[in-house]
C-alpha cells in the first residue's frame, strides 16, 4: 500500500519512522503534502519520500490512500477534494463535529465510492460503545481528560484547574488540539450534544489521561488510559499515532477483529 500523508509534525514523523525505517507489512509512505516545501525538504532524504506543496501533484504521485496528520482546518480545506480521489484516514476527528461537513464528507464518500477511516486515537473502548449504541442502549457517556497544565493553558498554575465542563460540541471549539477524542466518542455513541466532557489542567501530571464512563442497558463500563506523550508534541499521545498505524495495518488483514 503506497501512502500519502498530509502534515509532517509529531504524528507524521512517527508514521514515517515506523513505516519507512522500521517497516510495517507491505506499507510504504511515498509522498507527504506540506504547506512549506522548503521547511520540510530534508524529509525527502531522511525517509526516501517526495515532498509536495501542490495538492494535484501529491494526489497524482502514485499513492493509494491519504492519511491526515495536520489539523482540523486542513481537513475542512483539503479533504473534500482528496476524498473524491482517494480513501482517507483522518486523525483530526474534531473536523467532523461540524455536522454539515460530516454530511458533506459522507455524501462524497457515497458518490465516489470512497472510505473514510477514523482511528480510535488516544483512547479505547469504541468497540463496546458502538455495539451498545447500535440498539440505542447507551444512556450516558462521560469523558474526563487530565493533561499537563502547560499543554492546555498559558498561565502558571500550582494546582489542578477544571478548564472545561460541558458537551463535546463546545469542548472541541475551545480545545481543538486537545480533545479530538471526545468527537470519536460522540460519533460512536450518543452524539456531540450528549457526550459530557471535563478537561483538567494538572501541573502534577506528565501523562495525558483520558477516563471514559459509559452507562446503558448492557450495564456500565469505565476505562482509563494513561498516555505517554510524543516528544515532538506533548499535547499528542503516543497511542494516537499508534492508532493511525493500527488502522492502516488492519486494512490489510483478511481476518477482522472487533464489532
Ligand atoms: N484523534 C485523536 O485522538 C488525536 C488527534 N490529534 C490531532 O492530530 C493532528 C496532528 O497532531 P500532531 O502531529 O501532534 O500535530 P503537530 O502540530 O505536531 O503537526 C501538525 C503538522 O501539520 C502541518 N499542517 C498544518 N496545516 C497543514 C495544511 N493545511 N497542509 C499541510 N500540512 C499542514 C503542520 O505544518 P506547518 O505548520 O509547519 O505548516 C505540521 O507539520 C492534530 O490535529 C491533533 O490535534 C492528536 C492527538 C490525538
Ligand atoms: O493525544 C491525546 O491525548 C488526545 C488529544 O490530543 C486529542 O484528542 O486531540
TrEMBL record:
The active site is at 210. Its EC number is 1.4.1.21. NAD(+) binds at residues 122, 180. Residues 158-245 form the Aspartate dehydrogenase domain. Pathway: Cofactor biosynthesis; NAD(+) biosynthesis; iminoaspartate from L-aspartate (dehydrogenase route): step 1/1. Transmembrane segments: none annotated. Gene3D superfamilies: Dihydrodipicolinate Reductase, domain 2 (3.30.360.10), NAD(P)-binding Rossmann-like Domain (3.40.50.720). Keywords: NAD, NADP, Oxidoreductase, Pyridine nucleotide biosynthesis. The keyword NADP applies. It holds the Pfam family Asp_DH_C. It catalyses: L-aspartate + NADP(+) + H2O = oxaloacetate + NH4(+) + NADPH + H(+); L-aspartate + NAD(+) + H2O = oxaloacetate + NH4(+) + NADH + H(+). SUPFAM superfamilies: Glyceraldehyde-3-phosphate dehydrogenase-like, C-terminal domain (SSF55347), NAD(P)-binding Rossmann-fold domains (SSF51735). Residues 7-119 form the Aspartate/homoserine dehydrogenase NAD-binding domain. The iminoaspartate product is unstable in aqueous solution and can decompose to oxaloacetate and ammonia. Specifically catalyzes the NAD or NADP-dependent dehydrogenation of L-aspartate to iminoaspartate. Belongs to the L-aspartate dehydrogenase family. This is L-aspartate dehydrogenase. It comes from Lentibacillus halophilus.
